[in-house]
Amino acid sequence: MDTETALIEAILFLESEPRDFAALSRISGLARDAVSAAVDALEVKYARSDSGLELSRIGGGVMVSARREYWDNLREHYGRRNENRFSRAALETLSIIAYSQPITRAEIEGIRGASPDAMIRFLVEKGLVREVGKKDSPGKPSQFGTTRDFLKVFGLESIDDLPKLNEEEAERFELS
User: Fold this and answer.
1) Residue 78: count of CB within 10 angstroms of its CB
2) Percent of the chain beyond pLDDT 70?
3) Residues of the chain with confidence (pLDDT) below 50
4) Residues 6+ away with beta carbon under 8 Å from 54
5) Cβ neighbour number for residue 31 with a 10 Å cutoff
6) pLDDT score at 81
7) pLDDT tens-digit map of 82-118
8) Which domains does the chain have, with CATH numbers?
9) How far is CA 32 from CA 5, 23, 29, 72, 163, in A?
10) CA-to-CA distance for 129 and 143, rounded, in angstroms?
11) How far is Cα 63 from Cα 22, in angstroms, rounded to an integer?
12) Is residue 153 a contact partner of residue 80, using CB atoms and an 8 Å limit?
C-alpha cells in the first residue's frame, strides 16, 4: 500500500463519521484525485474475504467500519443492544417521513391516522429527523425530513437507496 492510501486509511480509522473527498483532501493535504485513488484502493483492499472491515459510502462520504456480517458477534461488546430499536409507531413515522419528505405533521397524521407529535420528538432527539423548512401554505407549518445520521444508521449512501415500494405501498405514502 502506498503512503497516500495509508494516510487516508489512518484518517478514516480515526474518524467516527463519514467524510467526503473534500474533507479528506483538506485533512490529508492531498489532492482530490489522490484521495479518490486512495479510497478506490481501500475499497479493493476491504473487499477481500480476509478483511474484517469494509468501506461504506454514506451520505456522500466514506467511512471504515466492521463488516456487517460480523456485527452479531461484535454487538454485545461494541454496540448497545437496544440503541436502534424503535417502536412500531416510531418506525412507521420514520418510514412516512423518509418516503414522503419534506412532509408536515398534519400530512403525517393524515397518512398514519394518529398524531405523530411524540414520535417526531423522539426521532428528532435520536437525530434521525429534522425540520427542513416551512410549507408555503396557511400557518407555514414545519416540514420534516431525514438526516445524515438516518443514512448512517440504515447504511444508505443517499435517500435514493431506500428500498423501492410496490404500488400498494407507494399509494399508502401518497399525500392527499
Assistant:
1) 10
2) 91
3) 81-82
4) 46, 47, 64, 65, 66, 67, 68
5) 11
6) 45
7) 455 677 888 889 999 999 999 999 999 988 888 888 8
8) 3-77 (1.10.10.10), 88-172 (1.10.10.10)
9) 12, 9, 9, 36, 31
10) 10
11) 14
12) no
